Amino acid sequence: MRITKIDYHFSKLRYQPDFMHFTDEEFQLIKEHTVLRSYKKGQILFDEGDERQRFYILTKGLVRLERYDESATYYYYDYVNANTLFPMAGIFEAQAYAYTAQAMTDIDTFYLPVSFYEKLARNNSEQLIALIHKISKVVEMHELRIQIGLTSSAFDRVKQNLFILKEELGVPTEDGHICIPYPITLKELAVNSGTTRETAGQVIKQLRDSGLLDYRKKQFTFCKTAVTPALRDANE
Predict the structure, then answer these.
(1) What is residue 82's three-state secondary structure?
(2) Measured torsion, CA atoms of residues 142, 110, 113, 33, in degrees rounded to the nearest 10
(3) CATH 2.60.120.10 occupies which residues in the chain?
(4) Domain 5-146: which CATH class?
(5) Within a 10 A sphere around the Cβ of 70, how many other Cβ atoms?
(6) Is 145 or 193 the better-scoring residue by pLDDT?
(7) Which of 16-25, 63-72, 141-150, 223-232 has the lowest mean pLDDT?
(8) Residue range 180-186: average pLDDT?
(9) In the chain, what percentage of residues exceed pLDDT 90?
(10) 178 burial class (0-12, 13-18, 19+ CB within 10 angstroms)?
(11) Residues 162 and 189 sit within 8 Å (Cβ to Cβ)
(12) Per-residue pLDDT tens over the stretch 44-86
């Protein structure tokens, strides 16, 4: 029996938290309402203010969620990688997307109707609890980012945001280090840290000279001894 690309990728979602508590019958119904599509780097999946019609689940690549104020002086950046349902903002209530989603690499993604997923989730208590846990973790991470944003030292903000990216996007390498296998520019890091590109570059140089990370072709690799300072402090 030949397994299609859609069947292969969709089967991997069965035991992801966003789907694992649905019954087999419900999961099959979700599959019947789901479409697999490819986007090129730089393409927009949806814009802030668009009608909230679809959930997305990446199978390959990286998406950046972004929002600007009217003067374009305030930025919000967040990232989504594979096998995660998004966007979660406004689930069960919002009529419009709260931010814009842009493909930062070539991506493959499933999408399905928001109304259909939410209808099934409302009637499945275990899946609702899983969604609550997921949203709780999102809130916890945003609280940490607010805490970092209040840090007076720009150098510390850059360092802590770097290590948050490590926790969210990093994957282990064969030699025990952690690599972010997606391009992250110094400008993005600076925006997330509320500072300049020059300051972000100075922090990268300092960490590189200390042997804690490497930065080549816009990709970060963290040494196995590099501990995430923000999360370490939060647990003390």
Answers:
(1) coil
(2) -150
(3) 5-146
(4) mainly beta
(5) 6
(6) 193
(7) 223-232
(8) 90
(9) 52
(10) buried
(11) yes
(12) 999 999 999 999 999 999 999 988 777 665 577 889 988 889 9
DSSP-assigned letter for residue 51:
B
CA atoms within 13 A on the CB side of 164: 26
pLDDT for position 46: 96
CATH 1.10.10.10 domain extents, the chain: 151-222
For residues 122 and 91, give the distance between their C-alpha atoms in angstroms, rounded to a whole number: 11
CATH number of 151-222: 1.10.10.10
H-run or E-run covering 136: helix 125-149
Q: Greatest CA separation found in the chain? A: 60
Assign 3-state DSSP to the chain and report helix, strand, coil percentages, each to 5: 40, 25, 35
Contact by Cβ (8 Å): 124, 21: yes
Which residue did the predictor score with more confidence, 236 or 183?
Answer: 183
User: Hey, how many other C-beta atoms are within 10 angstroms of the C-beta on 112?
Assistant: 19
Residue 120: count other Cβ atoms within 10 Å of its Cβ.
Answer: 18
pTM of the predicted structure, to 2 decimals: 0.82
Q: How far apart are CA 228 and CA 153, in angstroms?
A: 17
* Token output for 3: 């397994």
Tokens of 79: 């990232």
For Cα atoms 38, 5, 28, give the angle at the middle one, nearest 5 degrees: 100
